[in-house]
Amino acid sequence: MKDSFRLYPELVLMDATYKLTNVGMPLYVLLCVGPNGESAIVCIFLTVAEDTATLATALEKFKERNDQWPSIDCYDRQRHG
To answer: What's this model's pTM, rounded to 2 decimal places?
Structure first.
């Protein structure tokens, strides 16, 4: 996981799958996408709550463990229309 993110940190996608577990917790998956369109899982996490604070904490933990995180290119809809 770390090697894939280290190689291709520019584009990371996040998605959640619901009711995958018997307790109904959402499973979040972060994927990085390489230059040829191939993807690799770089992080997975389960959450009890889906609020801003919980997701921010999970992403902060990801950032703590991956020094390439500043290379992620965030798309801003307000800036780009």
So the answer is: 0.72
